[in-house]
Design brief:
The protein is mostly beta strands. It has one domain: Beta-galactosidase, Chain A, domain 5. Helix content is about 5%, strand content about 40%. The protein has 3 helices and 29 strands. The chain has helices spanning about 5-15, 90-95, 270-275, and strands at about 30-40, 45-50, 60, 65-75, 80, 100-105, 110, 115-120, 120-125, 135, 145-150, 155-160, 175-180, 185-195, 200, 205, 225, 230-235, 240-245, 260, 280-285, 290-300, 305-310, 315-320, 325, 330-335, 340-345, 360, 365-375. Strands 11-12-13-14-29-23-22-17-20 form a 9-stranded antiparallel sheet, with helices on one face. A hairpin with a 3-residue loop joins strand 11 (about 145-150) and strand 12. The chain starts with 6 loop residues before the first helix and ends with a strand.
């Protein structure tokens, strides 16, 4: 029997959620401030929140796209710098952003031909004129103005209501993401969602990291380790085929630390199609319970390190292959100026029965938790 939830029930259920996971372990109450960052075309305000953990590190997130705009972390000398790509003002984010720091959904990545089967019928999505659906459609979650709420500690909750039929996806969906910054420099995301009808859901954080803190520099010298023995291979149009291919002997082998730039220009078929790294890695171990380690990124020059821990089955590695624009502070952003490590389910899962499922039904609660853990090495 289908469970029908009202709009009020969806949002009130999510707003009542307690802080979970790493967010509750904050040993102090550093603080959150807010300011007006811009206005939507309809006049709705866009709010920017600054989360400070009391150590000098801080995180900024705005309601538009639930996007992280800044993340300031120390290096081995104790100097602080912004380690994510971004833009200077709201209008730039609204008109020029390459999903810098956004919460992508309903479905991160591609769904083949913009359609998939669900309970005996075919769901047809809005592709915006493209062959495949990408990142939830032309007006996905990254282009919506979320509702923000300051929580205890260095934390904020963002909520969004997505209508039944939004971008073609069935079911009215209420989604909540809690951003928190702990005293030990962990940036945490906790996502929960409810639906009124069966649907598919695969949200992710689309942050571009550059641990050097030098805006516009390339990430070729960053050392990356992925806790993965396989990846989801794709065809000539970058649509995954359903094959999980071994990383052994390929440019995608990051089982031991390797500079990102070592094989980024490889002539292997997967690298030529992607124009660099744009692949989903299958993370070892069971997913859906407690977060487990998925990746480690480090920058030898600054000493900054970042570990990604997640409950998700995969991590999309993307090296900003097509980025070519003026970024924050006038910095020139070129291909490979940042690296995304996006915890998520696999692309095109609704059309691949062999992949972990992304189906969400009424009465079920979607839960996902990821932590970006920062430290410094000598």
């Amino acid at each position: 029997m289908t469970v029908i939830l009202s709009r009020r029930t969806l949002l009130s259920s999510l707003a009542a959620l307690p802080l979970a996971g790493c967010a509750t372990r904050a040993a102090q109450r550093p603080g959150v401030t807010e300011q007006l960052f811009g206005q939507m075309p309809d006049g709705a305000p866009v709010t920017l929140y600054t989360l400070s953990n009391g150590t000098g590190a801080n995180l900024r997130v705005m309601t538009y796209g639930a996007a992280v705009t800044n993340l300031v972390m120390p290096d081995k000398a104790g100097s602080f710098a912004d380690i994510v790509l971004g833009l200077d003002d709201f209008e730039s984010y609204r008109t020029k952003s390459r999903n810098f720091g956004t919460l992508v959904g309903r479905y991160a990545g591609r769904i083949g031909n913009g359609r998939f089967p669900l309970d005996g019928r075919e769901v047809v999505l809005d592709t915006g004129g493209s062959k495949h659906s990408s990142h939830g459609g032309p007006v996905g979650f990254a282009k919506r103005n979320w509702r923000g709420q300051i929580l205890d500690g260095a934390a904020v909750r963002m909520t969004l209501l997505s209508a039944d039929g939004d971008q073609g996806f069935p079911g009215e969906l209420g989604i909540s993401v809690i951003y928190s910054l702990t005293p030990d420099n962990r940036f945490c995301l906790e996502i929960e969602a409810l639906t009124t009808r069966p649907t598919v859901l695969n949200p992710t954080h689309h942050g571009y990291f550059n641990l050097s803190g030098v805006s516009g520099s390339l990430v070729h010298d960053h050392l990356l380790t992925m806790e993965a023995d396989g990846f989801t291979a794709f065809g000539p149009d970058k649509m995954v085929t359903g094959e999980i291919r071994s990383v052994a002997g390929t440019a995608l082998d990051f089982r031991t630390p390797k500079p990102i730039g070592r094989d980024i220009a490889s002539t292997e078929e997967q690298m030529r199609i992607g124009g660099g790294y744009d692949h989903c890695f299958v993370i070892r171990g069971p997913h859906g319970g407690k977060p487990r380690k998925a990746a480690r990124l480090s920058h030898p020059g600054s000493g900054r390190t970042m570990e990604l821990w997640t409950t998700e089955p995969g991590v999309q590695l993307f090296t900003a292959n097509a980025v070519d624009m003026v970024g924050r502070g006038g910095a020139i952003y070129k291909p490979h100026c940042g690296v995304c490590l996006e915890p998520q389910h696999f692309q095109n899962s609704p059309n691949q029965p062999g992949f972990p499922g992304t189906l969400l039904r009424p009465g079920e609660r979607f839960r996902s938790r990821s932590e970006y853990r920062f430290a410094v090495a000598p």
